[in-house]
Amino acid sequence: MRSACILTIFCLGLAGCAVTPVPLSPPELAIYAEDKHERVVADQEPLSGRVSLYEAMARGLKYNLDKRVEEMQVMLRDQQLRVAHYSKLPRLVSNTGYANRDNYAGGSSVRILDSRTVGAETLTSSSSSERDVRSADLQFSWHILDFGLSWIRAKQAADKAMIAREARRRVINRIVEDVRTAYWRAVTATRLIWSLQRLEGRVERAMRDTRALTARGESSPLTSLTYERELVEIQREIRRLHGDLSTAKAQLAALMNVDPGSDFKVVVPYRMPQPRLLGKNANEMVAAALFNRSELREAAYNQLINDKEAEAAILEMLPGVSFSAAPNWNSNQYLFNNHWVTWGAQASWNLMKVFSYPDRRAEVDAKDALLDQRALAVTMAVMTQVHVSRARLIHARRRFRSAQHYFDVQQRIVEQIRQALSAGKVSEQTAIREEMNALVARIKLDLAYTELQSSFANAYASMGLAPYDEIDHEAMAVSELSSELKSEWRRLGDRF
Questions:
Q1: Cβ-based neighbours of 78, under 8 Å, separated by 6 or more
Q2: Contact 65, 43 (CB under 8 A)
Q3: Rounded to 10 degrees, what is the CA torsion of 466, 475, 69, 251?
Q4: Contact indicator for 273, 453 with CB cutoff of 8 Å
Q5: What does the CA dihedral 121, 122, 123, 125 come to, rounded to 10 degrees?
Q6: What pLDDT, on a 0 to 100 scale, did the predictor assign at position 125?
Q7: pLDDT at position 404
Q8: Do the beta carbons of residue 51 and residue 264 sit within 8 Å?
Q9: Which ranges of the chain have pLDDT less than 50?
Q10: Sign of the CA dihedral 69, 71, 75, 81?
Q11: Which one-letter DSSP state was computed for residue 280?
Q12: What single string gives the DSSP state of each residue in 366-410?
């Protein structure tokens, strides 16, 4: 009966420890969502006035959430490194205890006659321990092998902290490059909206006039339809470009960590100066990239971590020696000495580690070969990116010049058409068609300039150069950081 009761209590205890998945309730989800929505753009300077290029870059560096994630990763790795240092210290463990029983244990002895035979009891039952006993000790122990392994793990944690810093550098480079691209696309979209608003009503009136002329018989239907088709085709091209650019402001807002629904405006410049040349040939760019790129530095740190793993494998194979000492106290009144100190030393050797070392070393060597091949693959990828970015920048400069030349020619055509329209030598329809062609030329010029600015930033990013790497983003106000970024990019060759 007693066993059945114990078994029943044990089963009920197990049932009470069972855990079942419980989904978050709708109120909990609502509170969570509201909290994240309030905090996503909290604690940052509000927008005031139009956003310039370098203000957008400054806000991206200060407030971009991807960058903040990398900052938290760096902080986590640094904290893990600090924790790893404690593993090198000796163990110092404090113990205290209390024991009680409902009777005395007692004990007695019997005489031993030979190795297999005992005789009569030699004394009456007695006890050398109280029923209530309290004890305490402070154990100090130090294992030399564990200290060596902890030292290696701490150095590996330091290398992982450096990898986190390189990952942050890479994210910052990407953010700045994306901000520059999104900003110039937003400028192009803004210009396009202004131009469309000017031309939209004029095009509609021209189409109505053309239909009216056809209805009165003053123009052939084929001529009117041909003209209308040209206008519709140009309109469709303009609206297609507008559709491609319509998300630029939302993308820029996300990069700056601004609410995508915010109705902010960007500074629209009246001139488009070309950035200066990089001042480096292809070999110099490749050399700079192989020295600066965070991907290669991460590969180097990973190889260092694996090299330390080889050292750890050797240490694990060696005998270990530990030293210990502990002051003790016991409340048992039957003890002659209630306070005493113990100390000792112990040597241990896990022979299985010796037998497994060849395979352990082969594993480390195989990983080292893998990391080396990955580093070579990253090297080739970096070299390719450098050459591609250089070629892209050269092509973008040529494309911009061609677009600029085309736009200038189209502007001169429009001026000639306007003069002819004033003199009554051309029709309103012809003037509108050329105005729309000029608008398309302007949009393509802006897009070419966006590509040029993006290629310029990409060329520097491909070399791993970060003119903002040493700037303390968090401590500076947006205006101060914007001025600092402008000076640095001007030094690199940006003329905007």
A1: 161
A2: no
A3: -70
A4: no
A5: -30
A6: 73
A7: 93
A8: yes
A9: none
A10: positive
A11: -
A12: HHHHHHHHHHHHHHHHHHHHHHHHHHHHHHHHHHHHHHHHHHHHH
- d(Cα 166, Cα 77) in Å, to the nearest integer? 12
Report d(CA 100, CA 331) in Å as an integer: 12
What percent of the residues of the chain are helix, what percent strand, and what percent coil, each to the nearest 5? 65, 10, 25
Report if pTM > 0.85.
Answer: no
At 463 the three-state DSSP class reads: coil
Coil, helix or strand at residue 341: strand
Q: Work out the widest C-alpha separation in the chain, in whole angstroms.
A: 143
Helices (H), 40-143: 53-63, 65-86
Report the alpha-carbon distance of residue 264 to residue 258 in Å, rounded. 9
CA distances from 156 to 272, 311, 316 (A): 49, 11, 16
The CA-CA-CA angle for residues 318, 319, 323, to 5°, reads 135
Q: Which residue has tokens 């502007």?
A: 411
Please give the full DSSP string across 127-164, using - where no structure is assigned.
-SS-SSEEEEEEEEEEEHHHHHHHHHHHHHHHHHHHHH
Q: How buried is residue 347: exposed, middle or buried, by Cβ count under 10 Å (0-12/13-18/19+)?
A: exposed
Angle at 182 (CA atoms; ends 177, 186), nearest 5 degrees: 150
Which residue is it, tokens 């502990």?
326
